[in-house]
């Protein structure tokens, strides 16, 4: 067995942050020891680790990640608990199994992917699949998020879009949905096309408002920095310096999905979310999302991320409802 003994120094020294990292009575360090079968001792900001080489390496990366996540936001230190330690270890273990994530990238890469830092709040993944999804969005120009409702696909995509906008990595956010209603016909709804489609794209406004705040959302929409539009309005456009999110993509046709993906211009990202079990298209039409999974999954530059009921962050009863419907299929 390859046993490794090493000291690491966490900087800058900050007792409040170190206490948050270690937890009450060193509960967080005990979680490291239990989960990775290593030993950890600490003197101030110097940590001595001993154990199998791979386990120690994972512990080092996780300690650095978590210490960075204790950075004060508006004067408050982020508290770390054993559950977060366990999740972070799993996250690092997953990354170490995919070396392309870590090639030629500094340690702080992991921190960037682990959370979404906005002006007024920090958004952290609650499951390993969410963490991978965040990492893949940051590292790919085209990312698919596929799975049941309530798993954070659209919410996290919007949060990352706001983050990139605030850091001036992109200049524009476009949110879109295909104009297909669940069991309803748009033609029977009152009003012009905008009035008919507004209720359907309203969930995108709700997610934006929750992440950004409704006042700032309205200001950015007024400036045309953020657009919320039906998919049909994207035809003929080339979208440069933009984050483009296509929600409910299971309701695109193959032609619509191709149209959307070929709109992406320079310095842009596309995030496509959907649930292939919730297709509202006529039975004779294949879902553009299902078709894209089949023909594009061989392209390494495109990331596909699959969620399941365990990733649900809505009310616990939602998971039970998903189980009930799945058992009938």
TrEMBL record:
Please list the residue ranges annotated as the PhoH-like protein domain.
Answer: 123-326
List the InterPro entries: P-loop_NTPase, PhoH, PhoH2-like
Q: Is the keyword Cytoplasm in the record?
A: yes
Kinase is among the record's keywords = no
What is its subcellular localisation?
Cytoplasm
One GO cellular-component annotation of the UniProt record comes to: cytosol
Q: Where does the chain cross the membrane?
A: none
Origin superkingdom = Bacteria
The alphabetized UniProt keywords are:
ATP-binding, Cytoplasm, Nucleotide-binding
Pfam families from the UniProt entry: PhoH (PF02562)
Which SUPFAM superfamilies does this UniProt record tie to the protein? P-loop containing nucleoside triphosphate hydrolases
The UniProt GO MF terms for this protein read:
ATP binding
Family according to the record: Belongs to the PhoH family.
Its protein name is PhoH-like protein
Its gene is ybeZ
